[in-house]
């Protein structure tokens, strides 16, 4: 387990004042990594670290001699793949240096020359994502959705043994702020004789966390669970957009395809596993009667600390609400601790047949849903498959999403006198189909 | 449709004698593209074209002034992605120049300086494959396999409307000649109470063609069927290895995952769509009663020429046969003309929701199977799901594949006085699990 050190001390403050504000996502204890450039510059993207409302240009600080080592140098590149491949020793060294540079009493004079205002920066997808895999690790989500398709048998027999997943599309992953175009596709109503080709009418979000892989493995050589955390670089927020009507018609027998690959949106900042160390928790406690995980998915140490206590929230801002100056309306607020499978089990399982993972690969956790309606991570669940409307401020109602709706996801860790660790936002507005 | 020109003339010969031998896969009319380096050199990979038993180093010929243009220059790179992104105009120009350089009467003296003996070359995966998608376009395969799972209802209602596909894993695609390690994973027999983790016992091949995408599209902007062929660079052979026991237990509800992502093997040479022009055919004629494809998957011109008349053959060479000096034993020999969905329909469908394709993306066609046992493209079909053994020379029998078995796939076009266009081989030997 990544150990706590002085970079996690909740009493630390930064000479960047906005980092010390209550509720800031990016205090000195966080130091998430992303890729940015000056907005509208058409310049090269490069690696940066978020501190309050500022970004430290890591490569620039390296060139100025304020940071040393391969990890800092790797941030001069336009993706973080090289950094991700270096491994935990390098990441920890960079984090230590960043903490010392940016904390109160650090070299503010020199550090300031490498700051860029976040408001004047443009973020992008932080890695060249070779492969994207989407898991299905919330048993509540699997049960809620399964119930709509198979009322008597909501959860399939493999669920409690296999961290279920499917391969996703990496080309259509976009960073927060990119609009999402409503997809077109084959739709077939339950009573229709034949399908027709039209704009999706049951557009949904899926509230997930994304996991960026660090060092990979050689094809044919699985990563054991004991070593899984050395292969996890960090986490972001992921909106796995879903076209439910396309999905219903296409998904058998090979799984969702066109219902998913039109767009996925991720938050720009990757919160490192190191930053999350204070929020490690025991894994989800399986209810009596559930089978134990097979040995390759179980260790005592993982049982004690494989979980992550992360709050998640998904909200929607409609066109009308935007005009009225309303805030996004929260629909669901689950916690990641309730996931049936941990990110480390996902990684160990994914490589258990010999499949090779590469630095920059992305996993989606699957929709994070709790047990009550206010913790559901998809609209499909919140509106009971379209049978129940959701009320919005300003007398609006929704089942599925409409054009102009903006989906806003947030995630953060807090509590127990620890420093708040925020993920920032993952947002995207729906624009009409072609 | 790519038009026939003098590069297709069956009377053309090459000054490379092996290209003119009867049965050569790589005559002057073919000119498939691949990526190679001198074996054991640890040098840079670069683009080449196969001619008989030789490879023309295209970048070297460009540097020597024997070839001109961006397409030839792009072959100096270690992947063909740039070449693939340039588009048909560039490809045709390169093909014309290559044909003129390599044909009898061409500049043999200069050309010879750019030849590398195929026997002394090492091939690799010819593109950085951003995303790999596997289709399911043989209705015979879908029916044969569906019958094992759902005897009364083998074909699902969506099959005749939707070119069914799922996303695959790009990281584990390897070139012909790379051994394939038997995967481990969760297996659960039909009568077992719980699964166990063990080496796969029902290892299978799937005989497919692979399609390399040329220029892509912008996210949100589908490629209409009329334009699909401008986005197809060429085809190769693909063995989509499948662990049937892992698949049976894991595949519901999200499709195959660990049953597939441990390895896929492709042949090294990409036969361009231009080379295949003489073998374009009408698409598969749907039987009476089948629905017509939806309008976005149908044009008159596509109906007349969307098919490809390609012979495929899959054979197995066991350890014992190898010691006896036997040739690989052919198990199935289907033709690609019988596919229910064409490669152009696959491409148009894939982008029809706005999903963006990129140069170098790879599609698998899905297992190519005919209607009779001697045309089945998987062992699962050939051995009736394990119920029937397959006899091999030397008194061996098989249901599924054993360690030491080598799977050898071949594909070629011939007939009607046209020049033979070969794909070479896709082969890989199974090595035991860790």
Note down, in words, how this protein is organized:
- Two copies of one chain form a homodimer.
- By secondary structure, chain A is α+β, with helices and mostly antiparallel strands.
- Chain A has two domains: 6-123, SH3 type barrels, CATH 2.30.30.230; 132-431, Alpha-Beta Complex (Fumarylacetoacetate hydrolase, domain 2), CATH 3.90.850.
- Helix content of chain A is 18%, strand content 25%.
- Chain A is built from eleven helices and 26 strands.
- In chain A, the strands form seven sheets. In chain A, strands 6, 7, 8, 13, 14, 16, 17 and 22 form an eight-stranded mixed sheet that branches. Chain A has a five-stranded antiparallel sheet with strand order 4-3-2-1-5. In chain A, strands 9-26-25-20-21 form a five-stranded mixed sheet.
- The model of chain A has no long low-confidence stretch (mean pLDDT 97).
- At the A-B interface, strand 7, strand 10 and helix 7 of A face strand 7, strand 10 and helix 7 of B.
Indicate the CATH class of the largest domain in chain A. Alpha Beta
End-to-end gap of chain A: 49 Å
The CATH topology of the largest domain in chain A comes to Fumarylacetoacetate hydrolase, domain 2
- Specify the helix fraction band of chain A: 10-25%
| Number of alpha- plus pi-helical segments of chain A | 11
> In one word, what is the shape of chain A?
globular
Largest interface: A-B, 66 and 66 residues
Structural class of chain A: alpha+beta
Number of domains of chain A: 2
Q: What is the oligomer described by this structure?
A: homodimer
Report the sheet-strand fraction of chain A: 25-35%
Tell me the name of the CATH homologous superfamily of the largest domain in chain A.
Answer: Fumarylacetoacetase-like, C-terminal domain
Low-confidence stretches of chain A: none
Give me the Rg of chain A, rounded.
Answer: 21 Å
């Amino acid at each position: 387990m990544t150990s706590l050190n002085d970079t996690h001390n909740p009493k630390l403050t930064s000479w960047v004042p906005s980092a010390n504000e209550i509720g800031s996502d990016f205090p000195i204890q966080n130091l998430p990594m992303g890729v940015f450039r000056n907005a509208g510059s058409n310049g090269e993207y490069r690696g940066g670290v978020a501190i309050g409302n500022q970004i430290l240009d890591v490569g620039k600080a390296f060139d100025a001699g304020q940071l040393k080592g391969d990890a800092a140098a790797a941030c001069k590149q336009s993706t973080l793949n090289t950094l991700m491949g270096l491994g935990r020793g390098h990441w920890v060294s960079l984090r230590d240096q960043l903490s010392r540079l940016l904390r109160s009493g650090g070299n503010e004079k020199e550090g300031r020359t490498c700051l860029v205002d976040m408001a004047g920066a443009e973020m992008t997808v932080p890695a060249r994502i070779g492969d994207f895999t989407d898991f299905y690790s919330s048993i509540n989500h699997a049960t809620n959705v399964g119930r709509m398709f198979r009322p008597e048998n909501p959860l399939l027999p493999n669920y409690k043994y296999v961290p279920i997943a499917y391969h996703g599309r990496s080309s259509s992953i976009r960073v927060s702020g990119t609009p999402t175009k409503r997809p077109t596709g084959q739709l077939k109503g339950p009573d229709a004789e034949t399908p027709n080709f039209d704009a999706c009418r049951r557009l949904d979000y899926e509230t997930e966390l994304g996991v960026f892989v660090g060092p990979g493995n050689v094809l044919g050589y699985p990563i054991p669970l004991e070593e899984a955390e050395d292969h996890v670089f960090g986490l972001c927020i992921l909106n796995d957009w879903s076209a439910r009507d396309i999905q219903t018609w296409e998904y058998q027998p090979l799984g969702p395809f066109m219902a998913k690959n039109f767009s996925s949106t991720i938050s720009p900042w990757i919160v490192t596993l190191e930053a999350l160390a204070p929020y490690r928790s025991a894994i989800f406690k399986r209810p009596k009667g559930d089978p134990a995980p097979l040995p390759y998915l179980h260790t005592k140490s993982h049982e004690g600390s494989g979980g992550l206590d992360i709050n998640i929230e998904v909200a929607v801002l409609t066109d009308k609400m935007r005009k009225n100056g309303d805030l996004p309306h929260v629909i669901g607020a689950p916690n990641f601790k309730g996931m049936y499978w941990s990110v480390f089990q996902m990684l160990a399982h994914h490589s258990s047949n010999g499949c090779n993972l590469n630095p920059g690969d992305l996993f989606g956790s699957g929709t994070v849903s709790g047990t009550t309606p206010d913790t559901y991570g998809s609209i499909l669940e919140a509106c009971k498959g379209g049978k129940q409307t959701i009320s919005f401020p300003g007398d609006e109602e929704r089942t599925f999403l409409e054009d102009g709706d903006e989906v806003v996801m947030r995630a953060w860790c807090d509590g127990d006198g620890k420093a708040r660790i925020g993920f920032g936002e993952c947002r995207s507005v729906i624009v009409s189909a072609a």
